[in-house]
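Table S2 (continued). Query chain:
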Amino acid sequence: MKHREYSAHRKLIKRVLRVAERAEISRTEWDFSRCPTDELFECRAYEFARDTPQMRDDVRNLRKGLTCSFEELVRTLRKQIGRRPLADSLFWYYPEFPDIPYLTIPSDERGRRICALWPPTSSSIVIKPKLGPPPDIGQLLARGRVFYGGGSIEHALFEIDWTESDTYLSHAFSDWLKENRPKDIQVFESRRAGNWTRHWVHDLKALGAKAPYRANGMGKRF
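Corresponding output:
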């Protein structure tokens, strides 16, 4: 049943988007298909906030009396954002918000801002080498594995024989995972129904589908 409802919803969105394409509405107001994959989270957060009166009002109140650049807004507002919804998003600091769509901002400038606040991290995501040992290293090693810090993070020590091939070492680590991965921690899904990218794309299509209604004065944004 849920699958049929989801399919019907997608068909409705497609029909409304076709109406938007024929109407005299700026394409950046409804077509987010050109958004780079690594910007989908930012684009979705920006457009969601832009479509939500409470979020727009919150941003305006925070900026009251300020006419600043991106860098000035970051310095002035970063500590004030606190635990607000979407606090990890960057639209709070975009001087253009909420007046223009996200994709209207030049891509080079969007990328520069994202890198300024969220610098690229090491390509080593799962295993981070040369970790400092915990204070009770001896006691933890006696248990056969090192686990500290709580939550879903584990710091493990491995003895690696670099004379072995990459294939052998990969298989060895795979075997270690099968034996030691905690059963009670939910895995972040990156494919199929749990694919966040797919959800973000769908959400943007739904936001874009509202464009014709706003253009006709129904559910007007501003």
